[in-house]
Design goal:
With 188 residues, the chain is mostly helical. It is built from 6 helices and no strands.
Length: 188
């Protein structure tokens, strides 16, 4: 009986350690994304709370495991285009690369907002497609949309309320569209 209890304790310890390491990995990913965001965009008063929310969300979903962990990582990947695209648009339109949106906080351009909405819609549709094929589509989709929105808001949030609402609406609309179309093709 002592051997089985020892084996059970070791298995439980390994299980818990794997979940804790996954949570720590989520915090490390959020820290890396914060470094990218600070290199590409001007920090606003909302940046630090967004970084904290992203870190907490990735840690919680990573610790949870399964579809939540898969969706969180997919969401981070989906949030990268809205994080990077405004900096590229700013560089292309102003002929220089640096903290994008230096003027976006006081005078956001329509082009930046359209880019935030457009990239968010496209990646949202992709998230919806992947969620529809996951064994737990609702958990995967919710985790992916949450982390994609927080990741993208690190970039699009610098354009103000228009960019922030653009990413959230774009991700949700694109995600629902992707989910619906994927569901129709799966059943057909």
């Amino acid at each position: 009986m002592a051997r089985s209890e020892l084996a059970l304790a070791r298995a439980r310890s390994a299980y818990e350690r794997a979940h804790v390491l996954s949570a720590v990995r989520g915090i490390a990913i959020a820290s890396a994304l914060a470094a990218v965001a600070f290199a590409l965009h001007r920090a606003s008063s909302a940046t630090w709370p967004l970084v904290a929310a992203l870190g907490a969300t990735l840690a919680a979903l990573g610790w949870r495991g399964g579809a939540a962990r898969r969706g969180a990582l997919a969401g981070v990947l989906a949030g990268l285009p809205p994080l990077i695209a405004p900096a590229l648009v700013f560089a292309a339109s102003h002929g220089r690369f640096g903290p994008a949106c230096e003027t976006c906080a006081s005078n956001p351009t329509w082009l930046c907002m359209v880019v935030c909405f457009g990239t968010s819609s496209v990646v949202g549709a992709l998230v919806g497609q992947f969620a529809a094929h996951d064994p737990c589509p609702r958990v995967f989709g919710a985790a992916a949309i949450a982390t994609a929105a927080l990741t993208g808001l690190l970039g699009c949030g610098t354009t103000g309320l228009g960019g922030a609402s653009g990413i959230v609406v774009g991700l949700v609309a694109g995600g629902l569209t992707g989910w619906i179309t994927a569901g129709r093709t799966v059943r057909a």
